[in-house]
Protein 1
Amino acid sequence: MPDSWTSVSKRLARRIGPKSYRDWFEPTKLRSLTESELHVEVPNSLFREWMERHYTGTLEEVVAEVLGSPRRISFVLPGEGVEPSEAREVPQPEAFAELGDDVAPEMPKLDERYTFETFVVGSCNQFAHAAARAVADAPGKSYNPLYLYGGVGLGKTHLMQAIGRALMSRRSPRGDYLRMAYISAERFMCEMINAIRWKRQHDFRVRYRNIDCLLVDDIQFLEGKEATQEEFFHTFRSLYEDRKQIVLTSDCAPREIATLEERLRSRFECGLIADLQAPDLETKLAILRRKAEMENAVLPDDVALFIASRVRTNIRELEGCLNRIEALASLRGRDPDLELAKEATRGIFPDDSKPVTVEAIQRYVAHYYNVTVSELKAKNNARAVSFPRQVAMYLAKKMTKSSYPEIGKRFGGKHHSTVIHSVNKISAEASKSDEFNVLLNRFMDEIH
Ligand code: ADP
Ligand code: MG
């Protein structure tokens, strides 16, 4: 059994990556393993919450793969008793296996492709780009904090890292290079928890409060994480008071992050908030051309147009699509053409035979009513947002196989009764107004 336990650990590390493994599984212990259950001891309840949310499924899968049959996974706290049904347990009180050298290095690194030079500016991102430039030119002096937000794949991380890279070559008034930390909010939290666990809070604080510039990616992750928010607040305040630059990104505006502590919200809002919009066709084409150029790849106009018009907003998808087409073209030993582009992207774009997704509905409805998808998912009940949300929920019920609770979940975790209410309300409106009914039908025709 210890061997199989080592196998579980190794496989798990491979599955989730050495960084996550180190952060989350290394501080855990196997408490007990029976024929039906597996108890893993975790250091504290915050830790447990995280593990339950993020790793139960993966751990279950890996355990089933290695042991040949599934176990029910529980995370227990030190000193917490395990049910008496574990009398027949096969105890293996052994820490998760050491991973050796492939365990993650310290700070996350910047991606060298993410620079201002490679960032294509269009009307959708002009403002955010200008703000990022200003911060890179005069850190701590122009906009502090700079808060960049927008949907997935719209270039938030790219811009933030471009700032980081630009700052890396600058020297502080003391004459040495600027000290910079780039970190995701998620990692900030796990480092903090580990610091508490290992009683290294002091080191943690020193580390994040003695820098010249702090870049924190995906701050929406702090939603509902009160202890992390608290710690982050102190880090933030300390840096801010020392006039150090802070840059934050998020998938939504500060006011939309439910349970964001008021102190933090008002701090975020006192700097500059810039949003990244979905790219228009021209920007998408320009990004594709720039990327093809950088890779010395041939990209005929009709292929570029095909990709740009099929990929709606996500620039990462745009790039993925181009990569696949280029890969297939080289496999075939020819330059890409429209026919090949269609083949390379088959099954990627939703076509008529593929079921509609709740996400596609949200994107369409958000675009039509000129709100953001995150607004649709937020808790804001202003009519400008709540009406489109109800329409989107109605369409989700009509056009997909999702249940009410599932739909609620996709809308930022709303209760299923909210979804039922929305569907009924929109049905009632549709039966009252022909015009509205026609509009709903048009939506159903156009969403795919
Ligand atoms: P986000 O953090 O907003 O989810 P990313 O910054 O990771 O998005 O961007 C996704 C991908 O799209 C990255 O590979 C990035 O380089 C690229 N990208 C986004 N915006 C642009 C742009 N304006 N010009 C060039 N590439 C872009
Ligand atoms: Mg990002």
Protein 2
Amino acid sequence: MDRLTIRRPDDWHLHLRDGAVLAAVLPESSRDFARAIVMPNLAPPVLTAADARAYRGRVMAALPEGSEFEPLMTLYLTEGTDPDDVAAGHAEGLVTAVKLYPAGATTNSASGVRDMDKALPALERMAEIGLPLCVHGEVTAPEVDIFDREAVFLETVLDPLRRRVPGLRVVLEHVTTAEGVSYVRSNDGVGATITAHHLVLNRNHILAGGIRPHYYCLPVAKREKHRRALVEAATSGDGDFFLGTDSAPHVDAAKETSCGCAGCFTAPVAMPLLAHVFEEAGALDRLEAFASSNGAAYYGLPRNDGALTLEKSPLDAPPKIVTGDGPVTVFDPGFTIAWRVAP
Ligand code: NCD
Ligand code: ZN
């Protein structure tokens, strides 16, 4: 097969940032994707429906002329999140999900949750109204090894939380482990996003033969057996797994330094890279389910009408994009991506 037309895909986990970076990165997502769940970890974070409304306005204003891209907004859960504000934001169609960042887990997560009890009123309301909780599934305790943080989170945070708030719908964001995959498979109401980069990276790619800051993201890529479990889940057709690129731009100056930021900027190459991975797995016929159907079904949203055509032709992606704050390196998997989006 050298041409594949699928229903227009959605990105169920995306960082668009703000200001000059937003303006530069947004067209890279709006070109291929119809909708995206927009993460709220700005500095300061998107805490209230009013914040989300204002941020949505800035995203809409930054869209290329004529684009029909739809940003789906999220709120950043804190210990002070007001259940009424969340419910009102959801009722008006503004808020599609709420995001849990354990405090200190990742970029701009300092205002995240330390004591889950304090977030219970908001979580209970979300369960009542069917509003999904997107979780950054890592514990932050310094004694927990960074490669174990996801597996420990499932056992010590997510499972107890789901028992305390029955009916809460949860998306385990950017799942990176075989344990995460099997947790999703064995628990109803739990879905997971999978990134494109976690389908091609294991921890050797980051660390062996030199340190590669542009492969560093959180949760950090794990052993090869975990990467394989992710490929198996993504290409299985199982409706609980869907695309969330977690495209997370940082300017090069913030990545290529003694203490670099976490995040891979994959938006410009995400769909071609997925086609490459799905073809290698003999599962091109399941790419549409993963990128265009499963997520919409999980969120109870209609599927997109439009289409996206991919063609087998080596991708010639730009190494960097220019932003008003400096260059941002585009994710390069280290091999030639065999597919591109048809012009
Ligand atoms: C994200 C970012 O930079 O905002 N970074 C990342 O490594 N994925 C935050 C996140 O999703 O963890
Ligand atoms: Zn993210």
